[in-house]
Amino acid sequence: MNTPSNTTDSNSVRVAVSLGSNLPYLNSSPREIVLGAMESLRRISIESQASSLYLSKPIDCPPGAGDFINAAMVLRLTSKTSARGLLVVLQGIEADYGRRRGAEQNQARTLDIDIISYGNQELESIDLILPHPRARQRRFVLMPLAEIDPEMVLPGQSANIAQLLALLPRIENVQLLT
Fold first, then answer.
1. Which of 7, 60, 131, 168 has its CA 20 to 30 A from that of 157?
2. Which of 9, 100, 112, 127 is catalytic?
3. Handedness of CA 152, 119, 136, 106 (dihedral sign)
């Protein structure tokens, strides 16, 4: 069985990202923030595919945290953009929407953009782990990705996104927004 490659060609790379927001910023709702961030990502990519928006219950967040608006995108970027370079760009987009990084993990946030995979690259450093270490355990990541690229295989995995999603417990904490 051939597994689809996450690498597009020698001049470009396929990147999967996950977006989420559960706090408004200025006059923008979490929904508007995610949509705006998706437009920013379209501008930095050669081509892109975007999922619908999803509503998800917060996981491991402090009590009282609001529901998240989530989405995913698959981008084709020039291979001149490194994974770390992309991380800096994504953190800049997060900052544009008021993201403040604190010591507390899983806190409510105006915008969170995670690199789920960067081509076939596997990396473990202080600031970046590829593929994202918890992506295959999170329905709010896998559902949007399965919508746009169910056959994608994350580096180090043998199952594709649709198969990983099917393996998750049937907890309905994520729903498609209409």
1. 60
2. 112
3. negative
Beta bridge partners of 50: 73
Q: What's phi and psi for 172, nearest 5 deg? A: -90, 70
From the candidates 114, 136, 139, 149, give the one annotated as an active-site residue.
114
**For residue 81, is it left (φ>0), alpha (ψ between -120 and 50) or beta?**
beta
Domain ranges of the chain: 12-176
pLDDT in tens, 112-163: 999 999 999 999 998 899 999 999 999 999 999 999 999 999 999 999 999 9
* Catalytic residue of the set 99, 136, 138, 139: 99
> Which H or E element spans position 71?
strand 68-78
Candidate list 9, 76, 84, 109, residue with the active-site label:
109
CATH number of the structural domain 12-176: 3.30.70.560
Q: Is 60 one of the catalytic residues?
A: no
Has 109 been annotated as catalytic? Answer: yes
42: annotated active-site residue: no
- Is 100 tagged catalytic? no
The per-residue pLDDT for range 8-50, each reduced to its tens digit, is 567 899 999 999 999 999 999 999 999 999 999 999 999 999 9
pLDDT, position 7: 53
